[in-house]
Amino acid sequence: MSRARRVADRIREEISLASVLVDYGYEIYADDGGREQQFSCDLHGDGSDSKPSARLYPENNQFYCFACGRSRDAIALVREKEGASFWDAVKLLETRYNLAPLPWEDGDDSPKQQMSNALEQALNPSETPDQALTRLGRFLDNLCKDRALTAQRCAGFWEAHDRISLFVRDGGEPVKAIAMAHRVLEASKSALREE
Fold first, then answer.
1. Any idea which fold 3-96 has?
2. Angle formed at CA 42 by CA 41 and CA 46, multiple of 5 degrees
3. What residue ranges in 54-113 does DSSP mark as E strands?
4. Which residue from 50, 96, 123, 191 has the least number of CB within 10 angstroms?
5. What tens digit of pLDDT does each residue of 128-138 get?
6. Nearest-CA neighbor of 10 among 94, 88, 89?
């Protein structure tokens, strides 16, 4: 099992999503005996939700927003609320809820595999083009900062990012923009395997 999966499973088991929602100001009860609860979701549209569109499912520690059309756990919620990467969201949750980081085990992903896993988690098909580009930009920042790729390859990926940004600003079709961002991520993944 990958380290990312072990960490995510542990957070789902040990941190109540209801508590995380309450800490972000959502109007639910943190200790409601494991009952499902409806609440307003601010992660879609203009951020206002006049009729509660989300439902917390304590049995799997996730919620589903019918307006967003998405299911989220604590990590996904923190990623969206904070604009954080997967690992930054994990660190924030571990710190906020007093969990010691998991120790490394035999079979955990190598640093390159971690970067590859981050690629797969970097974009979500239900994101807007701007959100997809923001996430892609964060990923490229980390990828280039960690020197996982040569400077020349990093520059090429940033050029692709900038071209997608221009496409979006010029009124390009959102679905195509998101697809282009996914292709850049896939190319990054291939480049990581090669180096």
1. DNA Primase; Chain A (3.90.580)
2. 130
3. 54-57, 62-65, 70-72
4. 50
5. 888 888 878 88
6. 94
